[in-house]
Amino acid sequence: MISIKPHHFVDILTAFGDGCTDPKPHPYGHAVHSVTKEILANHYVSLRMEFGADDICLPCCHNVNGLCDDTIDVSFRPKAPKSKREYNLLMDQRWAERLGIQQDDILTAHEFCLRVRDRAGDISDIYRETPVDRTAERQKKLQLGVTKFLG
Ligand code: SF4
């Protein structure tokens, strides 16, 4: 069972759509690379929805007692909260509402991906602080990632 923020799995699918199948360890020390590999190796692995620190955050240098102390780049999204923790929570809440999921729900990666396929729709509202051209690119990659993941 993998504990994961909804938007983290969406990010993994988006990167997959962008051709990322073998991510390398990040300088932050977080576990995106290992969790990605685990999910890509087993599309039916169970995912527990977590809106706080997840298994990706656990080894991260910015995970301080379960709270992310990092900031986001607001240069192109001035209306977004600078705190990554606050921004991530917004993303998770919006994705959870869109996909009909709640904290601690358990879905397989395949089931989650089906929900993204069937319910994501136009994601510009989820990333409303981000310029539309960037979100349009993200949407294309996400759709491609979902299609590839579902085979
Ligand atoms: S959300 Fe924060 S603690 Fe979690 S992986 Fe990202 S930077 Fe690290």
Report the strand count. Answer: 5
Individual helix count:
5
Helix % is: 40-55%
Tally of structural domains: 1
Largest beta sheet: what is the strand line-up?
1-2-5
**Secondary-structure element sequence?**
EHHEEEHEHH
Beta-strand percentage range: 5-15%
Ranges where pLDDT stays below 50 over 5 or more residues in a row are none
Q: What molecules are bound to this protein?
A: iron/sulfur cluster
**Class inferred from helices and paired strands:** mainly alpha
Written description of the protein model:
- This protein has one domain (2-150).
- The relative contact order is 0.19.
- The longest helix is centred in the C-terminal third of the chain and has 19 residues, at 132-150.
- With 151 residues, the protein is mainly α.
- It is 45% helix and 9% strand.
- Strands 1-2-5 form a three-stranded mixed beta sheet.
- The protein has helices at 6-17, 32-41, 84-99, 109-119, 132-150; strands spanning 2-4, 46-49, 63-64, 67-68, 106-108.
- The structure holds iron/sulfur cluster.
- Iron/sulfur cluster binds at residues 28, 30, 56-57, 60, 62-63, 68, 70, 84, 88.
Topology of helices and strands:
Blueprint: E1 2-4, H1 6-17, H2 32-41, E2 46-49, E3 63-64, E4 67-68, H3 84-99, E5 106-108, H4 109-119, H5 132-150
Parallel strand pairs: 1-2
Antiparallel strand pairs: 2-5, 3-4
The structure holds iron/sulfur cluster.
Iron/sulfur cluster binds next to α3.
Pick out its properties.
3-stranded mixed sheet; 5 helices; 151 residues; single chain; globular; binds iron/sulfur cluster; mainly alpha; two-stranded antiparallel sheet
